[in-house]
Amino acid sequence: MTEAEPIGVDRSTLRLALMVGGLVLAVLLGFGLGRLNPPPTTASGAVPVTAAHTHPPGTAPHSHDGSTATQAGGADAAGLSISSGGYTIAPSTVEFPVGRAGELRFQIRNEQRRAVTRFAVVHEKPMHLIVVRRDLSGYQHLHPTMAADGTWSVPLTLPEAGVWRAYADFTAVADDGQQTAVTLGVDLAAPGGYVPRPLPAESTAATLDGFNVGYEGTPKAGEMVPVRFTIRAGDAPAALEPYLGAYGHLVALREGDLGYLHVHPGPQAEPGTVTFWMIAPGAGRYRMFLDFQVAGVVRTAEFTVSVA
Fold first, then answer.
1. Are 69 and 180 in contact (CB under 8 A)?
2. Would the pTM count as exceeding 0.85?
3. pLDDT-based confidence at 69, cuts 50/70/90?
């Protein structure tokens, strides 16, 4: 019976084992460093992105600086609920005295009920807040600021009694970098006698502060159509200026349930004009609010339109 020979280690096998071990160690170290160093944000929690628009209902998800942004709600009306897409708006108070300056404070919370602190900058702001009375009067377009704990605040005056609707329009950035465009709605109250105004008659023309504003095109439910606005100062095209990164911003609110739509235009084709590609989320009467800027002053033209 011969003595067993000592078992040796093949050099090529040893090299392979060392290479595999090194790769595993590198992956683990990279994962740990990635968790310790999340993507950079600004001091306010806003994540710089190249996006220059929000996503109207019906728009397919697309890229923001390499990260996927998805629109909650598809082609449905937005802003109908305090929760959507895994996010919830939580205001500190919902009652404001009529005609007195106050402050609206709120947080956006995720499914774990934690305050969200990372938001993409869309049209130069990480948060757009639209406030309107339920009869679609008293429109305000505001931009809150965020504290380090994720609490947003903005001065707010409700000039008349009644129930008001506030829409928080934002793009949240998750820990994995995914961006989700969401619009959440919450009711605010201004105690007192509420006498709702009837919706103004339909018209394709409006006059304000010496400007004549008109539009061409009829919004349709579930179909993308161009709506072209023309702004004139007397007989000349108005010298429109970029406001929040565009020559105009259009918000449409549906009578009754106050379904919300916020769209942004493409490049200006002609002086004094701005065109929006719009998909109405459903049939009904809408109030359209067009924000535009001339000589540093932002004005809002309002229109009533029926959508079939």
1. yes
2. no
3. very low
